[in-house]
Specification:
This protein is mainly α and 359 residues long. It has a domain at 67-271. It has 15 helices and four strands. The chain has helices at residues 2-9, 12-28, 30-45, 52-77, 85-101, 117-141, 146-165, 184-189, 197-215, 217-227, 229-234, 239-265, 276-286, 298-317, 322-358, and strands at residues 104-106, 111-113, 191-192, 195-196. The strands form two sheets. It has a two-stranded antiparallel ribbon. The protein is globular, with a radius of gyration of 23 Å.
Length: 359
């Protein structure tokens, strides 16, 4: 009798809130759910899909997209976009290839200096960061829309990569022992405890960005700008400075991806990285980061990269046509955006309901 009375006295809004809350939780966990579904599907349809060797190869492939996605996460949280990361990846790979193949030419002295890998890698990272910084400065100082700015720089950087080699490939980037520039290929081929360096580096980068997002004031400023840029500015946040830095981080991470890809291929080509930005954006959105800004997590982005990567590799192992792979990826991106909009609406309704209940 007491139990029946308690249920009868329960407000109608409570049961509605519980059902809505469950739906919201499921939407937030959509990336994990999608990952388990994809893993389960391919484990039954592809022989040896979950074998340790296959998993390591897949995660190694995923790391490339993960670097780009992790870098662009802060950009999207600020309600921006960076379409130049794929071109930046390719250009940074060309810079590395040029320095290994031709060195740093000093015409006034008639010589060329061939730097070691310990010099080449930092130089390439600086180049990537500078490209991102230029994007940030153009967007903030001249009030150019991020989409237009990064679309323009994408073409500029891709053209510059072509000019650097005349459209040709820089092959055989193992280096020359006599010149002291060997070891670049180890970055892509080497491993520690049986796990490739690229995978270790992916988790290190993810850990650093997650720490910045959760523990440092910069991370809080990034979220506040995406949530309400005007309010963030009034509260003392240096909006333009933060935006320049988020694009710098995006370019820096694209440079890391360029180094890893070039090292794995032991060659650099100016077209490398074409359309990679689409996979990165898909991973970020699938991971729960809102294109409207203000919401997103590094963990979600990393899981999103795993979903996109495992889906791509699984389809290849099944022998699915590359054309159908493009169709499926496009469908995944559209569904991810639709679900993101659903989550935003449900969160808004939940907030309104909570306010009415308190009132």
């Amino acid at each position: 009798m007491m139990k029946t009375k308690a249920i009868e006295n329960m407000p109608a809004s409570a049961s509605q809130f519980n059902s809505a809350n469950i739906g919201l939780i499921l939407l937030k966990l959509r990336t994990f759910i999608a990952l388990f579904i994809i893993l389960g599907f391919f484990s039954f349809t592809v022989d040896g899909f979950l074998a340790p060797a296959s998993l390591i190869i897949m995660i190694k492939h995923i790391s490339i997209n993960a670097f780009l996605a992790l870098g662009i996460t802060f950009v999207i949280i600020t309600a921006g976009i960076d379409l130049s990361i794929g071109a930046t990846l390719g250009f940074c790979g060309m810079v590395a290839g040029y320095m290994i193949s031709h060195g740093i030419v000093l015409p006034m002295f008639g010589i060329a200096i061939f730097p070691s890998v310990w010099v080449i890698v930092p130089v390439v990272l600086v180049v990537g960061g500078l490209i991102g910084a230029v994007n940030g400065v153009i967007i903030t100082r001249y009030n150019v829309a991020p989409f237009i700015c990064t679309l323009g720089t994408m073409y500029i950087i891709r053209g510059a990569a072509m000019l650097l080699s005349g459209g040709e490939t820089f092959p055989g980037l193992q280096g020359n022992p006599q010149l002291g520039n060997t070891g670049f290929d180890v970055i892509g081929a080497g491993s520690l405890l049986g796990i490739p360096y690229a995978i270790w580096l992916m988790f290190i980068v993810a850990g650093v960005i997650a720490y910045v997002a959760k523990k440092l004031p910069f991370g809080r400023h990034v979220y506040s700008i995406g949530d309400n840029e005007r309010a963030a500015e009034l509260s003392g946040v240096k909006v333009n400075s933060v935006k320049v830095w988020v694009y710098t981080i995006s370019g820096f991470c694209a440079a890391i991806a360029g180094i890893v890809v070039t090292s794995q291929l032991v060659a650099s080509h100016p077209a490398t990285g074409t359309a990679f930005e689409m996979n990165a954006i898909a991973a970020v959105v699938l991971g729960g980061t809102s294109l409207a800004g203000g919401r997103g997590t590094v963990t979600g982005t990393l899981i999103g990269a795993f979903v996109i990567g495992i889906l791509a590799d699984g389809l290849v192992m099944m022998g699915v046509s590359e054309f159908w792979q493009m169709v499926i990826k496009g469908i995944v991106i559209i569904i991810a955006v639709i679900i993101d909009q659903m989550q935003s609406k449900m969160q808004y309704k939940a907030a309104i309901t909570s306010q009415k209940t308190v009132g």
